[in-house]
Design brief:
This protein is mainly β and 126 residues long. The chain is built from no helices and eleven strands. Strand 7 and strand 8 form a beta hairpin.
Length: 126
Amino acid sequence: QVQLAESGGGLVQAGGSLRLSCASSQLAFARYAMGWFRQTPGKEREFVAAIRWTGDTTHYADSVKGRFTISRDNSKNTVYLHMNSLKPEDAGVYYCAARFNGLGFPALLEDDYRYWGQGTQVTVSS
Protein backbone atom coordinates (compact mmCIF):
# COMPACT_ATOMS: atom_id res chain seq x y z
CA GLN A 1 0.00 0.00 0.00
CA VAL A 2 1.40 3.34 -1.09
CA GLN A 3 0.74 6.20 1.32
CA LEU A 4 1.16 9.74 0.05
CA ALA A 5 1.31 12.96 2.04
CA GLU A 6 1.28 16.42 0.46
CA SER A 7 2.67 19.55 2.04
CA GLY A 8 3.66 23.07 1.09
CA GLY A 9 0.31 24.61 0.35
CA GLY A 10 -0.68 28.01 1.65
CA LEU A 11 -1.71 31.53 0.80
CA VAL A 12 0.26 33.43 -1.83
CA GLN A 13 -0.29 36.61 -3.80
CA ALA A 14 -0.85 36.44 -7.52
CA GLY A 15 2.50 36.30 -9.27
CA GLY A 16 4.09 34.49 -6.37
CA SER A 17 5.50 30.99 -6.04
CA LEU A 18 4.99 27.88 -3.98
CA ARG A 19 6.61 24.48 -3.87
CA LEU A 20 4.45 21.51 -3.06
CA SER A 21 5.92 18.25 -1.85
CA CYS A 22 4.49 14.77 -1.79
CA ALA A 23 6.25 12.18 0.30
CA SER A 24 5.65 8.47 0.02
CA SER A 25 6.06 5.97 2.76
CA GLN A 26 6.41 3.13 0.26
CA LEU A 27 9.97 2.06 -0.52
CA ALA A 28 8.94 1.05 -4.02
CA PHE A 29 8.23 4.70 -4.88
CA ALA A 30 10.50 4.47 -7.92
CA ARG A 31 8.14 1.95 -9.48
CA TYR A 32 5.41 4.55 -9.82
CA ALA A 33 4.75 7.40 -12.17
CA MET A 34 3.48 10.37 -10.21
CA GLY A 35 0.94 13.01 -10.96
CA TRP A 36 -0.47 16.21 -9.52
CA PHE A 37 -4.13 17.11 -9.76
CA ARG A 38 -6.13 20.00 -8.37
CA GLN A 39 -9.73 20.53 -7.46
CA THR A 40 -11.91 23.53 -6.70
CA PRO A 41 -15.37 23.41 -5.12
CA GLY A 42 -18.02 22.26 -7.52
CA LYS A 43 -15.55 21.08 -10.11
CA GLU A 44 -14.00 17.78 -10.99
CA ARG A 45 -10.43 17.03 -10.14
CA GLU A 46 -8.23 18.16 -13.03
CA PHE A 47 -4.84 17.01 -14.20
CA VAL A 48 -1.92 19.38 -13.61
CA ALA A 49 1.34 17.51 -14.23
CA ALA A 50 2.89 14.06 -14.34
CA ILE A 51 6.37 12.60 -14.22
CA ARG A 52 7.72 9.18 -15.13
CA TRP A 53 9.53 7.09 -12.57
CA THR A 54 12.86 7.99 -14.18
CA GLY A 55 12.18 11.69 -13.74
CA ASP A 56 13.26 12.42 -17.30
CA THR A 57 9.84 12.70 -18.88
CA THR A 58 7.12 15.09 -17.79
CA HIS A 59 3.76 16.25 -19.04
CA TYR A 60 1.74 19.34 -18.16
CA ALA A 61 -1.72 20.70 -18.56
CA ASP A 62 -1.75 23.59 -21.02
CA SER A 63 -2.95 25.92 -18.28
CA VAL A 64 0.25 25.50 -16.26
CA LYS A 65 2.83 24.85 -18.96
CA GLY A 66 5.79 27.19 -18.59
CA ARG A 67 4.85 28.14 -15.02
CA PHE A 68 4.85 24.84 -13.11
CA THR A 69 7.59 22.23 -12.92
CA ILE A 70 7.20 18.71 -11.63
CA SER A 71 10.26 16.88 -10.35
CA ARG A 72 11.06 13.91 -8.14
CA ASP A 73 13.79 12.61 -5.91
CA ASN A 74 13.53 8.85 -5.73
CA SER A 75 16.17 8.71 -3.01
CA LYS A 76 13.77 10.71 -0.80
CA ASN A 77 10.57 9.09 -2.06
CA THR A 78 9.30 12.57 -2.86
CA VAL A 79 7.74 14.34 -5.81
CA TYR A 80 7.58 18.12 -6.07
CA LEU A 81 5.50 20.70 -7.86
CA HIS A 82 7.19 24.05 -8.28
CA MET A 83 4.59 26.67 -9.04
CA ASN A 84 5.60 30.08 -10.35
CA SER A 85 3.62 33.08 -11.58
CA LEU A 86 0.59 31.88 -9.71
CA LYS A 87 -2.82 33.10 -10.77
CA PRO A 88 -6.08 33.19 -8.81
CA GLU A 89 -7.39 30.41 -11.04
CA ASP A 90 -4.58 28.15 -9.81
CA ALA A 91 -6.17 28.03 -6.38
CA GLY A 92 -7.59 24.76 -5.14
CA VAL A 93 -6.74 21.60 -3.29
CA TYR A 94 -3.72 19.95 -4.84
CA TYR A 95 -3.40 16.19 -4.74
CA CYS A 96 -0.53 13.93 -5.65
CA ALA A 97 -1.22 10.51 -7.07
CA ALA A 98 0.70 7.37 -7.97
CA ARG A 99 0.32 5.11 -10.96
CA PHE A 100 2.25 1.90 -11.51
CA ASN A 101 4.93 2.36 -14.17
CA GLY A 102 3.94 -0.27 -16.67
CA LEU A 103 0.58 1.24 -17.54
CA GLY A 104 1.59 3.96 -19.98
CA PHE A 105 2.58 7.62 -19.75
CA PRO A 106 1.23 10.23 -19.47
CA ALA A 107 -1.95 9.45 -17.60
CA LEU A 108 -4.33 12.38 -17.43
CA LEU A 109 -7.44 10.96 -15.82
CA GLU A 110 -8.19 10.60 -12.15
CA ASP A 111 -9.11 6.95 -12.64
CA ASP A 112 -5.67 6.25 -14.12
CA TYR A 113 -4.10 6.63 -10.69
CA ARG A 114 -4.40 4.15 -7.91
CA TYR A 115 -3.05 5.93 -4.84
CA TRP A 116 -3.86 9.43 -3.64
CA GLY A 117 -2.80 11.80 -0.94
CA GLN A 118 -5.17 13.84 1.21
CA GLY A 119 -4.42 17.10 -0.57
CA THR A 120 -2.97 20.47 0.34
CA GLN A 121 -4.78 23.78 -0.06
CA VAL A 122 -3.39 26.49 -2.31
CA THR A 123 -4.95 29.93 -2.13
CA VAL A 124 -3.94 32.72 -4.50
CA SER A 125 -5.02 36.25 -3.71
CA SER A 126 -5.45 38.79 -6.46
